[in-house]
Write a structure and sequence with these properties.
By secondary structure, the protein is mainly alpha-helical. Helix content is 52%, strand content 3%. It has 6 helices and 2 strands. The chain has helices at residues 15-25, 27-30, 34-51, 57-64, 67-77, 81-93, and strands at 97-98, 101-102. A two-stranded antiparallel sheet has the order 1-2. α1 (15-25) packs across α3. The longest helix is centred in the middle third of the chain and has 18 residues, at 34-51.
Length: 126
């Protein structure tokens, strides 16, 4: 395989910061607002932290979307229950949350111990 032509380093101060960058990068695919990105980034951070102790993805997804986690996300994002419900509805409408779990398409494969994540884009000009 050919070496990359260009490498861009994106420093992140926290796991949540990584997920915010991740969802901003994927914005052409999901078309979420910045506020919705804040909420899904918080959910993704919670899921990542839980994945360090829960290996079963079905159980992990249930804990990620349980009422305690939703309350924690709401508090972290400093939003009212009504606004949170609207955002959750929009996340479902945009396909970011499907069947009460984060769409696997939007879950990066992060190793619990790794401090880096590499994403390779392969553009083909026809």
């Amino acid at each position: 395989m050919k070496k990359p032509d260009s490498i861009v380093r994106i420093p992140c101060k926290s796991v949540n910061g990584f997920f915010k960058h991740w969802f901003r990068f994927l914005k052409p695919l999901h078309k979420l607002t910045d506020r919705e990105i804040d909420v899904i980034s918080s959910f993704a951070t919670q899921r990542y932290e839980l994945s360090k102790v829960i290996q079963d993805t079905d159980i992990l997804d249930k804990y990620t979307m349980n009422s305690d986690t939703k309350k924690k996300v709401r508090e972290e994002c400093n939003i009212s229950l009504q606004n949170f419900q609207v955002i959750m509805s929009n996340l479902r409408k945009h396909g970011v949350i499907i069947d009460n779990k984060i769409n696997p398409r939007y879950v990066p494969n992060l190793d619990g111990e790794a401090k880096t994540f590499q994403l390779m884009l392969h553009f083909e000009i026809e």
